[in-house]
Amino acid sequence: MQLVVARIGRAHGIKGEVTVEVRTDEPELRLAPGAVLTTDPAGVGPLTIATGRVHSGRLLLRFEGVADRTAAEALRGTLLVAEVDPEEVPEDPEEFYDHQLIDLDVVTRDGTEVGRIAEISHLPYHDLLIVRRPDGSEVLVPFVSEIVPEIDLGEQRAVIDPPPGLLDESRAEVASAREEEAAASTDGDGDGDERGPATGGA
Asked: Which residues make beta-bridge pairs with 142?
């Protein structure tokens, strides 16, 4: 199974390094030197990671065959994709890959149906569950333990304990949150989509 583990941002310096928007909670595994990643668009890759380092809180990568700023800048916006065993799970029981969460039924503690998880949005401050309601509208649920106290993969459900107003107000917040995510992706400064693992309860 293929999962997006990072998005390449802008070039850094003149020796071919790039900033990356990390989309996995296991960058030391997925984005280690020597890792070979396919890409989206496919024609850019595959790319082999030559070096990696953290600078001012951002992960910088250099790829084999990318030796200068011009070549690095040409990679901007490329998604890095890793091949992951679909049976693999994160070591931390409180972490989940995105594919484990997509399509889970979402209910409140009293069993009230809310909808189904359609998407995971990875923002710098926390992850968000985009929950599609039966009427087609969407609810934005912060993926933190206080609000999502239980993920039951066996029952294929997520239990939420929404604060007052969340299920009504979050509809209006979906657009603004996505705009913020898009802005962070555009400048390549986001710190954190495998497409998974997501945390809060790649």
From this structure: 128
CA distances in angstroms from 28 to 53, 111, 163, listed in the order given? 10, 39, 35
Q: Are 98 and 129 in contact (CB under 8 A)?
A: no
Q: Strands 198-199, 95-96: parallel, antiparallel or unpaired by DSSP?
A: antiparallel
Nearest to 127 by CA among 59, 196, 182, 78: 196
For residue range 135-175, list pLDDT tens digits in order: 888 889 998 889 999 988 888 999 999 888 887 754 444 44
Tokens of residue 150, six digits: 């239980």
Torsion of CA 90, 37, 117, 91, to 10 degrees: 0
Are 198 and 23 in contact, with CB atoms under 8 Å apart? Answer: no
Length in residues, the chain:
202
In this prediction the pTM is 0.53
Q: Which amino acid is at 175?
A: A
Question: Which residue is listed with tokens 């030391």?
Answer: 28
Q: Give yes or no for a contact between 140 and 170, defined as CB atoms under 8 angstroms apart.
A: yes
